[in-house]
Amino acid sequence: MMATDTPPLPDEGALYDGAACGLLLTDPSGVILKANLTFCRWLGLQRDDVCGTHFEKLLTTGGRIFHQTHFYPLLQLQGSIAEVKLELLSATGERMPVLVNAVRRDGGAEVWHEMAVFMARDRHAYEKELLHARKQAEQLASAKLAAEQAAQDRGYLAEQMIGIVSHDLRNPLFTIMLGAASLQRSNLDDQAKSYLGHITEAAQRAERLVEDLLDFTAARIGHGIAIECKPIDLHAVVAKCVEGLRIRWPGHVLHHLSTGTGTCLGDSRRLFQVIGNLVGNAVAYGDASSPIEVTSCISERECSISVHNQGQPIPPEHLSTLFQAMVRGTDEPTPSRSVGLGLYIVGEIARAHDGTVTVSSSREAGTTFTFAFRGDVESGQQADARAAPAGT
Amino acid sequence: MNLQRRNNIRVGGSGPATMVFSHGFGCDQNMWRFLVPKYEEDFRTILFDLVGSGASDLTAYDRNRYGSLRGYAEDLLEIIGAFAEGPVILVGHSVSAMIGLLAAVEAPERIGAHVMVGPSPCYINDGDYAGGFSRADIDGLLETLENNYLGWSSNMAPKIMGAPGQANLAEELTNSFCRTDPQIAAHFARVTFLSDNRADVPRLAAPALVLQCSDDVIAPRTVGDYLAKRLPRATLRLIENTGHCPHMSSPAQCIEYIDEFLLTLDVGHDGH
Predict the structure, then answer these.
(1) pLDDT in tens, A340-386
(2) Could you give the residue numbers annotated as active site of B?
(3) Alpha-helical runs (H) found in B218-250
């Protein structure tokens, strides 16, 4: 026997009217036949006003079009539709975002639609934010893409310009040097000779710069720096180069050291360029009172040329970017360097030789750049032996 | 480009003449399922999805080509050219009625007759012309589409709660009808509801049946009257129906009027 004072649970009718969502029953065309109190309360309407109204009339105009073109056909085809987001207009004209589920019931003679309506204000606000964020992200992405493209175009154009300009500079430079050479053979007073010396030196410097720029453009937008490898006597090549550099920088002491013997494959003109660049750096950044050492080294595995100087070490933070174009090992401008192409070109020449260029720098040991390449070394005997058979 | 795949073209039925069915905005060729079986008995039938809708090839959706209804009209002519012989009878719902109009102005010999279901040459009110909407209303529609963006994009197939009394559809329900990429839907909505084809209306030489619903929020009665007056060879028939899809909610009534219209044409409809 149950004897209890607890109030009875709500019956089905009360459950329907007080449900935590709007519940509707419409005819197949969408005219509302029944509506629970929750739905009516949300809209601020009496039940009598809601019933008899077409569901569509409670929607925003955009929602009506969507209802007609998508919601209704889907309900007809599938017999159900869920989680469609619409906005209801309340009696006061307030827009209420809702999610709607609907089922089409076919009772034989009668067809009707049952709908459940859920308030979705928070979800609506959240989705607005999501959409807003998405739009912003899309805008940022497209702006970034455009900026990247523009930068790429500018970069490409600049590199092309460098190539074209430096190529066209060669002709007037050649004319200047040819004129200077002719003048040298005529009778000049000392002052004129001195001027002529400056002119020649400046023209040579400009020519080297033009060559650097051409190499740079070839490496950056062409197929890399071209080399022509031949069997060479590395020590002799380096010795000859160092000899020339001694004349160029009479104020500095240059030593040439060599180890190992054999013939290797390399492009001697490019190796001149490498040594010239590295020694130029040693002159520019090294301690002028200490000698610069150029070492050529031949072993069975590889050949190398290293250039060593004493003086201020290269700041460690610069080591990783040293071989990139337009980067210098120091922030101070120096008179003997113009643009930071030298080490980049050295790096590219190393690459063309299937080799590497490395650097070590410290206060105690000084700074050493090492240009190493395979060189396909043949020892002296092997080279002799190869040459010999023809005679025996 | 594979036309069949691009427009998900389905050819059925048999008969001396061909009927082409073109769906409207927001749905796909499935909306013809209450109408087409009847016509498959006497006609060759061609159903397809507009590019960007249903099971069409979404990668073919080029915003320039489909930036106006002309792109769709070109598609329609391509489909007729490839899949039909002789002039066809075009049944176009809503925006497709206007796509058919544009196609017919372009190539009048291809379309012998038009059945326009809930057509509107212009949705926006303009002076004396009552299209039914203001520009702000159309912006509201675009907003509603955007609001349904998240629901559509994460799982484009609408959730299914069961389809009582339509058990034969159960298998298909695992796919979705009227599947739409939300961004394409928004673009298509813009193109559709901002279109104005009134200038082409008087240029339609072929006979046209206008099926006007008695209570249609998208194509109000005033629009049907406008078309009946300006189309050179129009027949206006009013269907007692609330809504924009009489071919789904009142298919029998539609069939009656279409049959009546077909009998007035010189086509291979032997009549029953």
Answers:
(1) 678 888 998 998 899 999 999 888 889 999 999 988 877 655 444 44
(2) 94, 216, 244
(3) 221-230, 246-249
Of B148, B217, B241, the CB nearest to A56: B217
Q: A84, B151: Cβ pair inside 8 Å? A: yes
Residue B110 is encoded by which pair of tokens? 């291809």
Closest of B83, B56, B85 to residue B71, by C-alpha: B56
Q: Roughly what angle, to the nearest 10 degrees, separates helices A268-285 and A234-248? A: 40
φ, ψ of residue B122 in degrees (nearest 5) = -165, 125
State the Cα torsion A328-A332-A338-A343 to the nearest 10°. -20
The span from the CA of B141 to the CA of A134, in Å, is 20
Q: How far is A302 from chain B (nearest CA, A)?
A: 56
pLDDT of amino acid A389: 42
* pTM score of the predicted model: 0.63
ipTM above 0.85, yes or no: no
Q: Does A69 contact B193 at a Cβ distance shorter than 8 Å?
A: no
| DSSP letter string, B133-170 | B-HHHHHHHHHHHHHTHHHHHH--SPP----TT-GGGH
Would you state the structure tokens that stand for residue A344, as one six-digit string?
A: 């980049």
Q: How far is it, in rounded angstroms, from Cα A352 to Cα A304? A: 14
Torsion sign, CA atoms B160, B164, B166, B168: positive
SS3 A184: helix
List pLDDT tens digits, range A76-130. Answer: 888 888 888 888 999 998 999 999 999 999 888 899 999 999 999 998 888 888 8
pLDDT at residue A136 tops 60: yes
3-state secondary structure of A84: strand
Residue B171 pLDDT: 38
Q: What is the DSSP letter of A69?
A: I
Query: In a mutagenesis test of the A interface, which of B217, B218, B239, B240 is the best target, namely the one with the most A β-carbons within 10 Å?
Result: B217
Which residues in chain A have Cβ-Cβ distances shorter than 8 Å to B140?
A: 60-63
Across the interface, whether the CB atoms of A73 and B241 are under 8 A apart is answered no
First to last CA, chain B: 41
Is residue A209 within 8 A of residue A242, CB to CB? The reply is: no
Pick among B145, B242, B253 to test the A interface (most A CBs inside 10 A): B242
Chain A residue numbers touching B31 (CB-CB < 8 A):
73, 76-77
User: CA of A35, closest CA in chain B: separation in Å?
Assistant: 20
- In whole numbers, what is the pLDDT of chain B averaged over residues? 86
Tell me the three state secondary structure of residue A31. Answer: strand
Contacts of B25 in chain A (CB under 8 A): 69
DSSP calls for A316-347: HHHHTTTTSTT--SSSS--TT--STTHHHHHH
Count CB-CB contacts under 10 A for residue A366.
20
Nearest by CB to A80, from B25, B31, B160: name it.
B160
Mean pLDDT across the stretch B235-257? Answer: 92
For the segment A245-265, what is each residue's pLDDT rounded down to a tens digit?
A: 888 888 889 999 999 988 889
List the single best residue of B144, B152, B241 to mutate versus A (max A Cβ within 10 A): B144
- On chain A, the residues whose CB falls within 8 A of the CB of B26 are 66, 68-70, 73
The strand pairing partners of B20, in sequence order, are B46, B90
Is pLDDT above 90 for A29? no
CATH number for the domain formed by residue range(s) B3-263:
3.40.50.1820
Q: Rounded to whole angstroms, how far apart are CA atoms A195 and A176? A: 13
